[in-house]
Amino acid sequence: MNSRSATELRAQRRSMAGRMVRSLVRNMSALGLVCFLLGFGMYLSASMQKTMSDARDLAQECLDEIAQEVDPAEYTLRVRDIALSLNGAEMDESYYAHFEGIMEEPGYAHMMDELLYWRESDMSDFFLAVPDAEHGKLIFVADTDMRAGHTYPVGRQRDIPGWVQRYFFGRNGGTFPRMFYYLPNRGVICVSGAYVRQGDPSAGFLFVMVRAEDVLNGIRRYVLQYVLVMLVAIAVSALLATRRTKRTLIRPLNAVGEAVQDYLADKRSGAAAKEHFTQLDIHTGDELETLSSMLADMERELAEHEADLTRATAEKERINTELSLASRIQVAMLPHEFPPFPQRREFDLYAVMDPAKEVGGDFYDFFLVDDDHLCMVIADVSGKGVPAALFMMATKIMLANNAMMGKGPAEILRDTNEAVCLNNQEEMFLTVWLGVLQISTGRLIAANAGHEYPAIRRAGGAFELFKDRHGFVIGGMEGVKYREYELTLTPGDRLFVYTDGVPEATDARNALFGTQRMTDALNRDPAASPEGVLMNVRAAVDDFVKDAPQFDDLTMLCMAYYGNDTDVKMKSGEGD
């Protein structure tokens, strides 16, 4: 994108004074508003508290006056008992007919007359009610609001939110709770009242809800005076701030901006290096002067960094090229053509290796020792990357050479361990599972050097972990002896070996895939071909890990044994 002209930049920098003035006005206005709201809130709270105290006293005096003639609790409890007996009934004319007898009693009429007498013109509502705590309802006993459509008849029930129940009904007598809130159509409402019977909230309440409009009238003069003072203070502060900003900020910033513009223009044109920022003459004694000095230092360091970056980029490209070549070499060293022995019908085999980095430390191998013996190897080198890959290639060759001499698995591992320990200055090691299968009989002799348990599926069954005995890792120490064990595979059996990158695959929450999920994936379609088995496991790992990064190499090998019965797949239904 083309750079803007110096004229445009100067115009934008000059407008900084205006932005600072506007920012000052906004900040002072915000501060003034906060102070106003705090003062307003304190005044309003005190006024509301007084109003609610007056409402509570009014309710208590009214109840005391009523109690001289009748006990209001008698009617609240009777109304509640009738309402509870009708619980669940529709509130229609037949429902309200049950309360007509109470309303016709002289005591109730006296209580209602007193309530109407004590109701004042500024009250939003003034009513007597009793709680039904079990069903979360409020039952009306007497309502003094005579406006059409506003009066709640005796026995009317209303659902009460839980917080209201806890706030008003969950107390053990004492001072009646009070609060105030705002209703859009009715203004600020103060709510207080008194208990019909002290110490027994279940006997009912006399609620007083008072409009608080008169409380707000005294605030108007305070608001006008406060706003006038704030406007004068903001105007004076803005004028002084503008003059100082131009002198100490705008002019130095203009100089810095022009130096930056010249620097960018020279960089784009490829002009010879200049010292653009050392020529600045800024002596403000504050952060701007420090900035000009830092820009001068930055210009010199960027020139040096560009030269270093050019060299580093060339080196990185060389390393990436070599890593790519190493990856191709590693892949080429592992068997990668499948099926590997198309002329052999006695078994089928498939393997994959997915390194966590460009090159990995895991490896698999399989080869025919002779016409009747198949050697299978899977191993995991400690560490990752290039060192692990070099160590892997060396040990892979050692294992293969020892196997081709006709040695048994335990002897192969022992001799390989001695060769590795002979010159292992980096103290690297690897785990190995190695097995030699006699193709004609299905006799499998294997040994394990600290590697993961293999999984075996018998024909027609399910994959299960075979917990073989582990020996010590290869390269750990000299003189280690390894033990062999023997298995007999029958036509239709399958063998699955893997590295710890499978069970230790982790998701974004650092949860492990685990051997249980692995065996579940193996048994998703246990009769699948070896390639299909590995694809099922890899799909399950990918679905578990999702977008989490791969931390370890992931290597698997699966072998299906058919023996001399080359039609075993068709006979057992184990087709691909």
Structure write-up:
The chain has 576 residues and is an alpha+beta fold. The protein is built from 14 helices and 16 strands. Strands 3-2-1-6-5-4 form a six-stranded antiparallel β-sheet. α1 runs antiparallel to α8 (220-269), α10 (385-404) crosses α11 (409-422) and α12 crosses α13 (530-545). The protein starts with 5 loop residues before the first helix and ends with a helix.
SSE blueprint:
Blueprint: H1 6-67, H2 72-85, H3 93-97, H4 100-103, H5 106-118, E1 123-132, E2 137-143, E3 157-159, H6 162-169, E4 179-183, E5 187-195, E6 205-211, H7 213-217, H8 220-269, H9 287-333, E7 347-354, E8 362-370, E9 373-381, H10 385-404, H11 409-422, E10 430-438, E11 443-449, E12 455-457, E13 463-465, E14 484-488, E15 494-498, H12 514-522, H13 530-545, E16 554-561, H14 568-572
Antiparallel strand pairs: 1-2, 1-6, 2-3, 4-5, 5-6, 7-16, 8-9, 9-10, 10-11, 11-14, 12-13, 12-15, 15-16
Helix pairs in contact: 1-5, 1-8, 10-11, 12-13
